Amino acid sequence: MGSINSAPTTGRHIVSVLEQAWQDIRDRHPEIPDVVVITGRGSEGEWMTWGHWHWDPARWVADKSTKPELFPAGDLLGLGGRRVMEALLHDAVHGLATVRGIDDTMAYRYHNKHFLRLARELGLKGPKDRDPMSGYSACTITGKTAREYEATIAALDAAGMPYVWR
To answer: If you average pLDDT over residues 41-52, what whole number do you get?
Structure first.
């Protein structure tokens, strides 16, 4: 059996860079739990997700311990490291809310004021206006936060797939 190609665009390499980016977030915010990182296509017909945070204790179990799932969509990788970092921080907000027992969404879609408060804590800024369907979901990374994660963003840029979602 031949060896697996470890070129920068392999899934193994991309997942390892995503795992390191998550660890970089956890280094700054130790409350955020470790995760199992999976990725795949985020688009399905006209529906698109840039990722999700999923805490289901029965989903990922090893040695009697559980981990939540982090799914950054593969489609996101072609948009650059800064955009990937923004999505990871968004999901880190959900992780922080879970650990603190805060309901940060309603009906799994609407991101409420609790989400916005935690997003600011992790270095995101809220949208100018609240969206009637998704609330404060569209938070963006601040320049200050991007500078703090500059090396991580560069690593994500280098690992990004040469394909763009269409």
So the answer is: 59
